Amino acid sequence: MDERTAERFRENAVGIASTAVTGTWLAMLFLFPDSMAWLAFLLFGYIVIVPVTAMLFGDEEEMEEWVEEFDREEPTDADDEPQAESALETLRNRYARGELTDEQFERKLERLLETETLEDVEDRQQRRERQPEFER
Fold first, then answer.
1. What contacts 35, CB < 8 A, 6 or more positions away?
2. Mean pLDDT of the 98-119 span
3. Quick check: 128 and 81 in contact, CB under 8 A?
4. Are 65 and 36 in contact (CB under 8 A)?
5. Which of 42, 94, 20 is nearest to 64 (CA)?
6. What region holds the SHOCT domain (predicted)?
C-alpha cells in the first residue's frame, strides 16, 4: 500500500468501519433471516467497532467536539435558536481566526447544517436582530 492510499485509509477509517459494519449486518440479515445474529453484530459494531475506530483514527477535533456534545445538557426548545446561531457564529469566528483549514471549516459547516439549511439559521438570526432588546 503506497503512502497516499494509507493516508486516505486513515482519514476515512471511521466511514470505512461504519460501512463494513452496516454491510455485514445487512448481509447476515438477508442470508440468515431466522437467526438473530445480525442484531448482535449490529449492536457490537456500532457500540464497539465504530467508536474504537473513531478513537484510533478519528480527527482529534471531532473527538473533542463529541465529548463536549456528550457533556452538554439537552437544550430546551427555547435554547435551540441561540445555540444553533452561536454554533454557526463560533464556526465562522474560528475560521476567520485561522484555527480551521478550508477543508475543516467545510466539513464542520456541512455537519452543522445537516439538520437545517443555512437559510434557516440566517432567517432565525435576522428575526432575533429585529426583536426588541427586552424580548430577548
1. 28
2. 76
3. yes
4. no
5. 94
6. 87-113
